[in-house]
Amino acid sequence: MPFEIVRNDISNMQVDVIVNAASRLPRVNAGVDSSIHKKAGPALLVARKKIGYIQPGDVAITPAFALDAKYVIHAVTPIWRDGTHQESALLLNTYLKCLDLAQKQGCTSIAFPLLASGNHGFPKSKALQIAIQAFSGFLMEHDMLIYLVVFSKESVQLSEKLVHNISCYIDENYVSNYTRENYGGVEERERIDRYRLARLMSQREERSANSCIDASHSTTVASQSSQSLSDFIKSKDAGFTETLKALIEKSGQKNSSIYNKANMSKQHFSKIINDPNAKPSKQTALALALALELNLDQTEDLIGRAGYALTKSSTFDLIVQYFIEHKQFNIIEINFALYEFDQSLLGNSCI
Fold first, then answer.
1. CB atoms within 10 A of CB 256
2. What are 17's strand-pairing partners?
3. Which end of the chain is more exposed for a tag (fewer CB within 10 A), N or C?
């Protein structure tokens, strides 16, 4: 099942499990901890006191009481010192313990804050990188709907280097494309002129040939034209679904691996793979191309069979192209980049 980014107060989430950024001691801290305890009611703190001290990197579970959830997992994260004291490994382990505990309770949905990025001082880009690693690895092996709940866009940050590189890529390609389309060099204009002339000559030849057809053969010609159209339809290129099936078979991957990597639900994937005339959205078509780790030409061929193209005048398209060209196919990471630039997301994600 997919991963989703949601702008909300985590205490308002309707899920099986809400993860709380908890204190080591049974007390209520500011921020997420306070919001969750306020909505859950005083019974949550009573249950938390029964657990007692929680070691950094460990988690514990209680009922959710007045929250619209079944359970609260209290996750105690490490405090960032300087990055040389196993902070990252400990935070990753905290995420994985939460996910493992939720699965053992039979839960199918879980909502996380961006752990350790507040009072515990983790750099937001580092905290986000660890969350991506945890969610990506878990979803490759398990079905669960994972929400990362952010209160504002500033709550999550990609690395400055990645944002800078994507921005430069967008600027360079947009300017190059704009210049080519609006001005062009001599060679480009000559190529366009040759194309237009060849097309004009072809149209003239077709009109001349049509004018020479004997009216007495109109019935025969109509029959031949009809047959030609039928043959043309039969011989057309494979559609999106047929091509997708062939690519999956060639990759040697299971369907479950593809829809998990594409950040799609099994139900959504099944509708596409079982319908020879399926026309998925552009976001879905691209998600499947990324799951298959296709290069740029292969991606354009696949999405073209669903009626789409990648252009250099679209920020969304350029961001996706950037990751494909750099052979980075993790859709959760790509979605955070799209989120950073206020673009729609891939797969079943939402904001």
1. 13
2. 71, 110
3. C
Handedness of CA 118, 124, 126, 129 (dihedral sign): positive
Q: Are residues 132 and 260 in the same domain?
A: no
CATH code for the domain in which residue 102 is found: 3.40.220.10
Count of domains forming the chain = 2
Give the C-alpha distances (Å, rounded to integers) separating 282 from 264, 287, 304.
13, 8, 10
Which amino acid is it at 351?
I
Given a contact cutoff of 8 angstroms between Cβ atoms, the answer to whether 118 and 32 are in contact is yes
Check residue 216 and give left, alpha or beta (phi > 0: left; psi -120 to 50: alpha).
alpha
Residue with tokens 């029959």: 223
Cβ atoms < 10 Å from Cβ of 274: 9
**DSSP H or E stretch at residue 5:** strand 3-7
- Token pair of 192 as six digits: 């366009």
316, 344 contact by CB (below 8 A) = yes
Confirm if 66 and 47 have CB atoms less than 8 A apart.
no
- 135 falls in which pLDDT band (50, 70, 90)? very high
Q: What pLDDT is stored for residue 151 in this prediction?
A: 77
Give the pair of three-digit tokens for residue 23.
């204190």
Range of the domain at 72: 3-157
Active site residues: 33
Cα–Cα distance for residue pair 124/243, rounded to 1 Å: 40
What does the CA dihedral 340, 341, 344, 345 come to, rounded to 10 degrees? -40
Three-class SS of 165-181: HHHHHHHHHHHHHHHHH
Helix, strand, or coil (residue 113) = coil
228 within a domain of the structure (yes/no): no
